[in-house]
Design goal:
With about 325 residues, the protein is α+β, with helices and mostly antiparallel strands. It has two domains: about 230 residues, Thrombin, subunit H (Beta Barrel), CATH 2.40.10; about 80 residues, Pdz3 Domain, CATH 2.30.42. The relative contact order is 0.13. About 20% of the residues lie in helices and about 30% in strands. It is globular. The protein has seven helices and 19 strands. It has a six-stranded antiparallel barrel with strand order 1-2-3-6-5-4. Strands 7-8-9-12-11-10 form a six-stranded antiparallel β-barrel. Strands 14, 15, 16, 17, 18 and 19 form a six-stranded antiparallel β-sheet that branches.
Length: about 325
């Protein structure tokens, strides 16, 4: 199956080739959208329980899902009207934008900060609240195999149709994206991904052609940059081409940061004295939890820029100031 515009005719509770479908059917459709292995242990009772939980969470989730701008979506997450959306939907900070409430009301808003690397953006509604809103995730972070549901406005805001529901499972999780079987389409960008508690766990970001190629900016990407986004800061993306700075290490995941598994010859890391088994914990004060965050923290810098790196060596914390060099490899997996 390929993604196509027939889905843009989807009904209020689900999507299936232009037909209005009940919530129960949207759960069945999730079987087609998500790798079968993730459903191998599910029983009919599991599907029924999932349906009940989605139904219980849906009213509040629908009330907080809004249209944004000329064809995007977003979700209100506070009574005073803070909206989370995708960076490519919100655009540059400090501009006027219109949001559409579920009842069709047009509300003026102002764009706040954006974090392009994670496709995370914020918007502030203007006017008096309190606004209907959904809670942010407070339970355990999303994990592979978890049920989830997505809302958004594919094809643009349609008051008669309302936000469209898709139900699926989490396929993979990284610090810079969540991939799910909740099929996304044009206009869904910036809309919310929920767990079965009705908590926001991500924001729709981008799609691929297969039905299960749906990517969402994880909530943690917003939380790590929350103050900067609220303050209207436009956080830099990675530098393109050969101007991008390089540390010259290969790393792997570690409970306390990322562990150096390789120090390349003639690299900035080698010149600074880094060793295999050093555990990198922070770059210029930004906490590093995995190699994707390291890639951003280094990749946004240019050749010749200096960074301060906090790391553990033999259980003792140290700090080195490193002048970044040129990359000796292009896009090598697990390296920065």
């Amino acid at each position: 199956m390929k993604k196509n515009d027939d889905f843009l005719k989807a009904g209020r509770t689900g999507s299936c080739h232009g037909q209005w479908v009940p919530l129960g059917m949207s759960l069945v459709l999730a079987l087609f959208y998500t790798p079968f292995i993730l459903h191998a242990q599910d029983t009919l009772a599991d599907f029924e329980a999932t349906q009940r939980r989605v139904q219980a969470a849906l009213s509040q989730a629908m009330a907080s899902t809004v249209g944004v701008g000329q064809g995007g979506s977003g979700v209100i997450v506070s009574a005073d009207g803070l909206v989370l959306t995708a960076a490519h939907v919100s655009g540059r900070p400090n501009r006027r934008i219109t949001c559409r409430m579920p009842d069709g009301q047009r509300v003026q808003a102002e764009t706040l900060g954006r974090f392009d690397y994670a496709d995370a953006g914020m918007i502030q509604l203007q006017g008096e609240g309190p606004w209907p809103h959904s809670p942010l995730m407070e339970s355990m972070p999303a994990a592979v195999g978890d049920w989830c549901f997505a809302l958004g406005h594919p094809g643009g805001f349609d008051e008669d149709r309302g936000a469209v529901l898709r139900v699926g499972k989490v396929i993979s999780v990284r610090s810079d994206f969540i991939r799910t079987g909740c099929e996304l389409l044009r206009g869904d960008s910036g809309g919310p991904l929920f767990n079965l508690q009705g908590e926001v766990i991500g924001i729709h970001s981008r799609i691929g052609e297969p039905l299960d190629d749906n990517y969402h900016a994880p909530l943690n990407a917003f939380l790590k940059m929350w103050d900067e986004l609220l303050a209207g800061v436009s956080l830099p993306n990675v530098v393109s081409g050969r101007d991008r700075g390089s540390l010259g290490v290969g790393v792997e995941s570690h409970a306390q940061g990322v562990m150096v598994k390789e120090v390349r010859e003639n690299s900035a890391a080698a010149a600074a004295g880094f060793r295999v088994s050093d555990i990198i914990q922070a770059i210029d004060g930004f906490a590093i939890e995995d190699r994707f965050e390291l890639r951003w923290a280094i990749g946004k810098m240019r050749v010749g820029d200096s960074v301060q790196i906090k790391f553990l060596r033999d259980g003792k914390q140290e700090t080195h100031t490193v002048e970044l060099g040129k990359s000796t490899r292009w896009q090598r997996r697990g390296s920065s």
